[in-house]
Amino acid sequence: MRFPWKSAIFLTVVVGGAVAAYKPIVDYLQERNRPKFRTDLTERGDITYVVNATGTVQPVLSVHIGSFVSGPIDKLYVDFNDEVEKDQLLAEIDPRLYKANVARDQAGLAISKANLMRTQARLQNAVNDEERALGLQKDNENFISQTELDQYKFSRMALEAELEVSKANIEQAQANLSNSTANLDYTEIRSTVDGIVIDKKIEPGQTLAAQFQTPELFIIAPDMRKEMHIFASVDEADIGLIREAQQAGQTVKFTIFAHPGELFEGEITQIRLSPTTTQTVVTYPVVVSTENKELKLLPGMTAEISFKIREQKDVIKVPNAALRYYPKREHVREEDRKILDGTEEKQASGEESGDSQPATVKAKGEEESRRRHVWVKEGDLLKAVEVTTGISDYQYTELTSGDLKESEEVVVGLKTK
């Protein structure tokens, strides 16, 4: 009889232990399977809406210095990065041929002047002969015939015409001399502006051929220390916002890879109406002006630009992750599941697609898209809070209406186990 009693006692202990452990085990399993939500807090503060773009630094003006005449480069006086002044001598082309042309045309001008003097002397002699003949005829008509008078007259007229030809020859010779002198002057390549040499495309001994196309010798950028331009390509979807920022006089902030950690400022000077289309993507060039006193901005540098569009101060801000979070149906309380059901139905049926919607519906849809839901914890489940959003930055979105307060906990995701 002792054995059955021992068995009964053992079974009683086992069953009692199982009953006693049941509730803790169930509580442990429930706690283990309960979803763990990641949360963040709403904040009160300032928020700035920006449009980001990439641009290239370029001088405001690039003056291309070329050669009007041909010949080998004889001397070179400047190099890359040299600062030059207007009319400063940059290079010289071998002037020997052009000096010879000047000497030839000077001699031609001297010959023309000598011919003029000779013609003037012959004309004066013809005039005197005609006057003497007329005097003899006046004394006695029989002393000289009319034929002889005509010869004197037409000789004088021919020499008068020859005198005009001699004067024209002098003008032609002077023009030839001016041309050859100008060509000689063009052998001296001079700067047309004050600036910095940002490109040099010649070396001493190089031969230039300017008969068909003007060779490009230097590129000089004036006023690089005063102002530089940044050319950014902005998507058509954002160009209206950029115009809004320009009209509001908003400043532009940008960074340069060459100076990490340093923030530069500029202003929008121009939105050019010359779109570029690349694989159906339309962009517009936007010109940003900035100072460059320390010459830190060099041509060709890449700038990461942030166009400040609007700014709101002292507003409640919701973390962007909370607006992006989309919970599972089983994690949401019963009365809010219709929000998920309605969204799922629209997405499945394609009702939210704007491809076939008229413009009025699309415009209204833009307003409706600012009505969102965020999720807050209510016990073990989530409760939906409808909000209306405003401008956004990279981390937060402005709350314009909705039942959320400052420092309120909102769900941004699920914790990984």
Write a short abstract of this structure.
The protein has helices at 2-33, 96-139, 146-186, 236-247, 320-324, 337-349, 359-368; strands spanning 37-41, 43-59, 63-66, 71-76, 83-84, 89-93, 188-190, 195-200, 207-208, 216-221, 228-235, 251-256, 264-271, 276-278, 281-290, 302-319, 371-378, 381-392, 396-402, 409-414. By secondary structure, the protein is of the alpha+beta class.
Q: Which key phrases capture this entry?
A:
417 residues; alpha+beta; 6-stranded antiparallel barrel; 4-stranded antiparallel β-sheet; 7 helices
What strand line-up does the widest sheet have? 2-11-15-13-12-16
Whole-number average pLDDT? 86
* Estimated radius of gyration: 47 Å
N-to-C series of helices and strands: HEEEEEEHHEEEEEHEEEEEHHHEEEE
How many helices? The count is 7
The general outline is rod-shaped
Helix content: 25-40%
Biggest sheet features: 6 strands, antiparallel, barrel
Got a strand count? 20
The separation of the N and C termini measures 54 Å
Portion in beta strands: 25-35%
User: What structural class should be given to the helix and strand makeup?
Assistant: alpha+beta
Regions with little confidence, pLDDT below 50 for 5+ residues: 344-354
